[in-house]
Amino acid sequence: MLTTQAISRRNFVAGLAAGATGLMVAPGRAMASLSPNERPVFATIGLRNQGWGITAKTFQFADFAALADVDNNVLETNLEGAKQRQGKKPDGYKDYRHILDRKDIDAVMIATPDHWHTKISVEAMLAGKDVYCEKPLTLTAAEGKLIEKVVEQTGRVFQVGTMQRTECDKRFILAVALIRAGRIGDLKKITCAIGGATASPKIPVADVPEGLDWDFWLGPAAEVPYRALPEIRQGYGGNVPLFSNCHYAFRDWFEYSGGQLTDWGAHHVDIANWALDAADTGPSKVTPISYDMPVEYRDGYPVAADQSNVPTKFELRVDMPNEVELIITSEGDNGIMFEGTKGRFFVNRGKIVGKPVEELEANPLPEGAMEKVYGGPISANHSANLIECMRSRKQPISDVWSHNRAMEILHLGNIAMRLGREIAWNPVSREIVGDDQASTFLARESREKYAINM
């Protein structure tokens, strides 16, 4: 298992001085700070849905020199879209490594399926690129530790796609500020409602869609046949099969993702940790209260290979520091309920409601309270925060270390449901306590030809 001593954003600079000689780093153009008026040069790797979304919102700040995707149809569509937006067509690649070889590219945005995130992120940093990577950042806890180590040793700016820290009308920053100001007394309970999943029917082996390099899409994951049913997904993530082991539906397979727990959980549990001021610590225990698995499991692994396998419904109890109880559930209104000794309130992407919020009209927070939570002036949006940090060489508000602490909770939750038992955790050593079988799920093996190039 890959391990490294955890460090926080507070000791990031000290960590750089101590550990900068451990890895070979390519001298990318962004090794020095950008000038205030300089437009950075970006590339995006993984372009379907969120990949194009993060690219589109960044055109106002950066020039895109290259795009990459293993699906040629997606690649060509987005190359034309980029040409229309910035007046110049980026170079297109199936193999992202051509992007990393280029010295003119300052930063990469990564929106591949989750099982590719760590490999591309590490190799990009070693090539001298700053990185934005979509959440959930990792497939395992060991991957998170590796990314932290490489950020520390290369000095790259690394932003995670937990946009609730910057966007959504600043509701979540206000929520954290309310708690830090004591407006609900001592925090006792947090409930993160993140929605559930839909079990798939049996999915047959199917022909790989024309233009898709299936082996490259699988990458570090085990070699398996492509599966799909003909029904097409409607709405967001559309124009792909509703049930498959690829494209949008990859989130429903532990081989490539962590289901709803790591998808939406990466957002709400991150905010819960932020409110708890738990960026440098974690739980002592994760207990599965109830859960529904769509297929039979044996020793933590699904028996069936022809159906999606992540939990469809669940309720987890997480024992957090200072005797705070964190509940993660698939039921209820998507959002976060904070409960304290003097009141409670609810926040999501559409609203923040409750008596402590209503009382702000007569008793507003002190001036600068939200900026204090944020650590300075609040950025206009996520991309703006990234480029501000590329100039200052500080880490973004959505940093690697705090994100990984939230992800460890979510990874442990999935392990607990896969094995059907509570998991004890040491938040200092970041290891499972007294359960050797459960500990084997903290890392994974990669196919040799897609191992991380260190």
Automatic annotation (TrEMBL):
Residues 202-451 form the Gfo/Idh/MocA-like oxidoreductase bacterial type C-terminal domain. This is Inositol 2-dehydrogenase. InterPro entries: Gfo/Idh/MocA-like_OxRdtase_N, Gfo/Idh/MocA_oxidrdct_glycsds, Gfo/Idh/MocA_OxRdtase_bact_C, NAD(P)-bd_dom_sf, TAT_signal. Residues 88-161 form the Gfo/Idh/MocA-like oxidoreductase N-terminal domain. The keyword Oxidoreductase applies. Keywords: Oxidoreductase. SUPFAM superfamilies: Glyceraldehyde-3-phosphate dehydrogenase-like, C-terminal domain (SSF55347), NAD(P)-binding Rossmann-fold domains (SSF51735). Its EC number is 1.1.1.18. GO terms for molecular function: inositol 2-dehydrogenase (NAD+) activity; nucleotide binding. Signal peptide: none annotated. Pfam families: GFO_IDH_MocA, GFO_IDH_MocA_C2.
